[in-house]
Amino acid sequence: MSASVDAAGFVLAGGRSSRMGAEKALVELAGEPLIVHAVRILRRAGLAVSIAGARLPLESFAPVVPDAEPDRGPLGGICAALASTTASRAVFLPVDMPLLPPELVGFLLKEALREQAVATVFALN
User: Fold this and answer.
1) Cα(78)–Cα(67) distance, rounded to whole angstroms?
2) What is the pLDDT of residues 59-116, one digit of tens each?
3) Helix (H, G, I), strand (E, B), or coil: what is residue 123?
4) Does domain 7-115 have CATH number 3.90.550.10?
5) Paired sense of beta strands 32-33 and 28-29, if any
6) Which of 29, 33, 57, 68, by CA, is between 20 and 30 Å from 116?
7) In this structure, are residues 35 and 75 in contact, taking their beta carbons and an 8 Å threshold?
């Protein structure tokens, strides 16, 4: 990703993990917590990374943006993240997508810029 792209990356990690039964961000995959994988993906995509809506102390992994209104779900984390940045674009990655290729993040951001899209969402059919 080009350093000239004005974008910030945010890991959404504010869920209650009620179905998981454990703090999802700290569940390990291949010997590392999911939060490590998510932060790495965004950094490899060339983005400055923050963690949005963390319910537990995750500052050791990246700066944390707390929810302005707790218990609003992912939308609360997204709103808090957008309010915290001056970047013209924001990339949001759920903490539980550890296998997403950083190149896909970069591609989607480039496409959003090329198309002047307000939002770009990927889907697998």
Assistant:
1) 9
2) 999 999 998 887 777 888 899 999 999 999 999 999 999 999 999 999 999 999 999 9
3) coil
4) yes
5) antiparallel
6) 68
7) no
